[in-house]
Design a protein that fits this description.
Mean pLDDT: 78
Largest sheet: 2 strands, antiparallel
Strand content: under 5%
Shape: elongated
Helix content: over 70%
Structural class: mainly alpha
Order of helices and strands: HHHHHEE
Oligomer: single chain
Radius of gyration: 42 Å
Length: 192
């Protein structure tokens, strides 16, 4: 399973690098430093989409539920931050650069990052709320059970106290006759 996580993470990193190059394309940064001589927007988009999708699937297959949830939350936050960076870059380009600057990729990245990041963060928050709600429900049920048990115990103690307080004492009867002779009573005591 570790190999799936490593391959998935590597594909996600490649997709992230493609996004970084796509974000720097309007500034001609890759062409100026000699990385790309032509405009490879289609190839980078394909690398980003396929690398991101297959990377996420492989990473999800290789990880457990809790690490998947943490990864989804971290990925959602990263996508929201990337959407904000795209919006900021679009603002700077429209404010400073000439009209001929191509920004269609940035618009698509902005929409894709913002929507997918928002959905990922929303899903993880809903999962956490549901887990918290189920834990609270279990705690509430345990408290109700404990209260019922304590009430039953209090009822048993009350019954024991009532039973202890009721005493049955045998009555001692003495019989006096006209003769003054001693006789024995049922308790083997001599009566005069």
């Amino acid at each position: 399973m570790l190999i799936l996580r490593i391959i998935g993470f590597s594909l996600l990193v490649l997709g992230g690098l493609a996004v970084i190059v796509l974000l720097s394309m309007p500034f001609n940064f890759p062409q100026n430093i000699g990385i790309f001589i032509w405009r490879p927007e289609r190839a980078l988009w394909l690398l980003f989409l396929l690398g991101g999708a297959f990377g996420a699937i492989l990473f999800a297959l290789g990880s457990g539920w809790h690490s998947l949830e943490r990864g989804l939350k971290a990925g959602g936050k990263l996508l929201l931050i990337s959407g904000f960076v795209c919006a900021l870059e679009l603002f700077l380009i429209k404010a400073r650069w000439p009209i001929g600057t191509r920004t269609i990729s940035l618009w698509w990245l902005f929409v894709l990052f913002t929507l997918s990041g928002g959905v990922a963060v929303y899903i993880t928050e809903m999962i956490e709320r549901e887990e918290l709600r189920s834990k609270e429900e279990l705690v509430r049920k345990a408290e109700l059970k404990a209260r019922a048990a304590s009430r039953a115990e209090q009822q048993r103690v009350r019954l024991r106290i009532v039973r202890v307080n009721v005493w049955h004492m045998p009555a001692i009867r003495m019989f006096v006759t006209a003769k003054k002779a001693p006789h024995k009573n049922p308790f083997n005591q001599t009566v005069l």
